From TrEMBL:
Pfam families: Glyco_hydro_32C, Glyco_hydro_32N. The lineage of its organism: Bacteria, Pseudomonadati, Pseudomonadota, Gammaproteobacteria, Enterobacterales. It comes from Proteus vulgaris. Its EC number is 3.2.1.26. This is Sucrose-6-phosphate hydrolase. One of its GO terms (cellular component) is cytoplasm. Transmembrane segments: none annotated. Pathway: Glycan biosynthesis; sucrose metabolism. Keywords: Carbohydrate metabolism, Cytoplasm, Glycosidase, Hydrolase. It comes from the Bacteria. Enables the bacterium to metabolize sucrose as a sole carbon source. InterPro entries: ConA-like_dom_sf, GH32_Enzymes, Glyco_hydro_32, Glyco_hydro_32_AS, Glyco_hydro_32_C, Glyco_hydro_32_N, Glyco_hydro_beta-prop_sf, Suc6P_hydrolase. Belongs to the glycosyl hydrolase 32 family.
Length: 468
C-alpha cells in the first residue's frame, strides 16, 4: 500500500467503525483494544524514563490477519494511555505484506524500532527482513530499511526480533523455522544495530534436551530475572496433552541459565505461561527495577474468527500489564500495582459460597480466600471450578456452543480475578498460575458463586480507563 492511500483508508475505517466499536457491550472498559479492526501482538514495549510505550500489531482495515501496521500508545502510569500517531505501515517492498512483530530500544538517544518486514510471493512462499525505524519530530517513525535478511538453512518463517544491550554489545533473539520444519530461536549479536552476526541456535525443537517442540517458534524474549534467565516463546505445532498445551498455539517459557561469555543457554522443560483459552505473543520490558509483561488475549488459528465482536468491526484485546518474578524455579505473574488505582467501592463478604451475593457487572476485581471447593459462574458462558487441587475453566465455544475445558493444577488458597466486559484474568496463589480468557455471554452480565465451603470475598468496581 502507498503511504498516503494507506493513511486515508485507515482514517476512513476509523471514522466509519469506531462509534460501533466503543458502544459494543463486549468492548473493554479498561483493557487496551483496537479502536477498529484487529489487534494482535504487543510490540516495542519500553519505558523512556517518563512514558511507557506500547506498540501493537494492528490491522485497521478489517478483522482479518492482513495489512499489519504498528499502532502506538503511551502512558505515564500503565493505566491511562494516549493514542500516538500510527508508527509503521506496510508500504515498502521489504515489508509489503506486513510490518510484523518486534521490539524497541533507545539507540543514540532515539526510540528505535526493530521489526520484521514480511514479504509473500505468488507461489505461496515468503521471505522476511529484520528492519529498523527511528522516531521523528512529529511522533512518527522514519524507516531505515532492512538490516538482516534470511539466514541460510531456515525457511521464510524467521521473525519477531527482540533486541537488548548488555555490556555495550547488542543482542537479538529471533523466532525461526529450519528447513526440516523445526521451531528454533536464533541468537545474534552486534556492536551497532546495522550489522548483525549470527551466533547460533539458542533453543528450540531437538535442542537443550527438548524433543519435538513444534514446527515454528514465534515471539522469543530472553531476559534475566531474580538471578535466573527466562526465555518466553510461542511454539507452534506442539503436541496437545491431556491438560496442557490445549490452545491452537501455546505460549510457554524455559527457565535456566544463560552465560554471556559462552552464549549458551542451559534450561529445563517447556512450561505453559498461561493456562487460559486466550494468551499469546507476550512481550516484556525492564523498567524502574521491574520486569513487566503485556500479552495478547487472543490466539491465532483457533476459533478467533467466531468471536461476536467482528460484527461490530473489531476483535481482540491486550491482557492487563503484569509484573514478573521467579520463585522456587517458577515464573510468577501478578497484575501491576498501578491497577489498584482503578478500584472503587470496596465490598467485603464472608460465608458459605452458596450464600454469596450475586455480582451484577463485569468491570470488577475479585479477591478470594478459599477454604475448600468453589465454583464461580460468569453468566451462562464461563465457569471456574476449583476442587481437589485443580482449577477447571469451562467455556462455551463461540463456534458451536459446546463446553471446552482448560486446567491448572495446584492447591489454590487465593484467587485474584480481574474482569472486564468480555474477559477474565485469574491469578492463582498470588501469581503462581494464571488463566486468561475472553468470553461473550448472551444473557445478562452476572457473576454467581456456588459451593459448600467458606470463602472470604473482597470486590471492587473498576473505573473506566480507555485511551484518549
Ligand atoms: C504472532 C505473530 C508473529 C508475527 C505477527 C504477525 O501472533 O504470528 O509471529 O510477527 O503475529 O501479526
Amino acid at each position: 500500500m502507498n503511504k498516503n492511500e494507506g493513511l486515508s483508508a485507515i482514517l476512513q475505517s476509523v471514522m466509519r467503525n469506531s462509534a460501533n466499536t466503543i458502544k459494543d457491550k463486549y468492548y473493554p472498559h479498561w483493557h487496551l483494544a483496537p479502536v477498529t479492526g484487529l489487534l494482535n501482538d504487543p510490540n516495542g514495549f519500553c519505558f523512556d524514563g517518563e512514558y511507557y510505550h506500547l506498540f501493537y500489531q494492528w490491522n485497521p482495515l478489517s478483522c482479518e490477519h492482513k495489512h499489519k501496521c504498528w499502532g502506538h500508545w503511551r502512558s505515564k502510569d500503565l493505566i491511562t494511555w494516549q493514542h500516538q500517531p500510527i508508527a509503521l505501515l506496510p508500504n515498502e517492498f521489504y515489508d509489503k505484506d506486513g510490518c510484523y512483530s518486534g521490539s524497541a530500544v533507545f539507540y543514540q538517544g532515539k526510540l528505535t524500532l526493530c521489526y520484521t518486514g514480511n514479504v509473500k510471493f505468488e507461489d505461496g512462499s515468503r521471505t522476511a527482513w529484520q528492519c529498523l525505524a527511528v522516531e521523528n519530530q512529529q511522533g512518527g517513525f522514519d524507516k531505515l530499511g532492512p538490516v538482516l535478511g534470511l539466514p541460510e538453512g531456515y525457511s521464510g518463517h524467521v521473525r519477531d526480533p527482540k533486541i537488548w544491550q548488555y555490556n555495550d554489545v547488542w543482542y537479538m533473539v529471533l523466532g525461526a523455522q529450519n528447513l526440516d520444519k523445526q521451531g528454533k530461536v536464533l541468537l545474534y549479536r552486534a556492536s551497532h544495530l546495522y550489522q548483525w552476526q549470527l551466533v547460533g541456535e539458542l533453543a528450540g525443537s531437538y535442542l537443550g534436551g527438548l524433543a519435538d517442540a513444534g514446527y515454528m517458534w514465534e515471539c522469543p524474549d530472553l531476559f534475566e530475572l531474580d538471578e535466573r534467565f527466562i526465555l518466553l516463546i510461542c511454539p507452534q505445532g506442539i503436541k496437545r496433552e491431556q491438560q496442557r498445551f490445549l490452545n491452537s498455539h501455546s505460549s510457554a517459557y524455559l527457565i535456566g541459565d544463560f552465560d554471556y561469555s559462552t552464549l549458551q543457554f542451559q534450561h529445563g522443560d517447556l512450561i505453559e505461561l498461561d493456562a487460559g483459552f486466550e494468551f499469546y505473543a507476550p512481550q516484556t520490558t525492564f523498567a524502574n527495577g521491574r520486569r513487566l509483561l503485556f500479552g495478547w488475549m487472543g490466539v491465532p488459528d483457533g476459533e478467533e474468527m467466531y468471536q461476536p465482536t467482528i460484527a461490530n468491526g473489531w476483535i481482540h484485546q491486550m491482557t492487563c500489564p503484569r509484573e514478573l518474578h521467579v520463585k522456587e524455579g517458577k515464573l510468577y505473574q501478578q497484575p501491576v500495582k498501578e491497577l489498584q488505582q482503578l478500584r472503587q467501592n470496596p465490598a467485603y463478604w464472608q460465608g458459605i459460597a452458596d450464600d454469596a451475593p450475586t455480582i451484577n457487572e463485569f468491570s470488577i476485581e475479585l479477591e478470594l480466600q478459599l477454604f475448600g471447593s468453589l465454583t464461580i459462574h460468569f453468566s451462562d458462558t464461563l465457569s471456574l471450578i476449583i476442587e481437589n487441587e485443580q482449577a477447571l475453566l469451562k467455556r462455551r465455544s463461540a463456534k458451536n456452543g459446546e463446553w471446552q475445558s482448560r486446567f491448572w493444577s495446584g492447591d489454590i488458597k487465593h484467587l485474584q480475578i480481574l474482569c472486564d466486559s468480555s474477559s477474565v484474568e485469574i491469578f492463582f496463589n498470588h501469581g503462581m498460575g494464571v488463566m486468561s480468557s475472553r468470553f461473550f455471554p448472551l444473557e445478562k452480565q452476572i457473576i454467581t458463586f456456588s459451593g459448600k465451603d467458606v470463602i472470604k470475598l473482597t470486590t471492587w468496581q473498576l473505573t473506566d480507563a480507555l485511551p484518549s
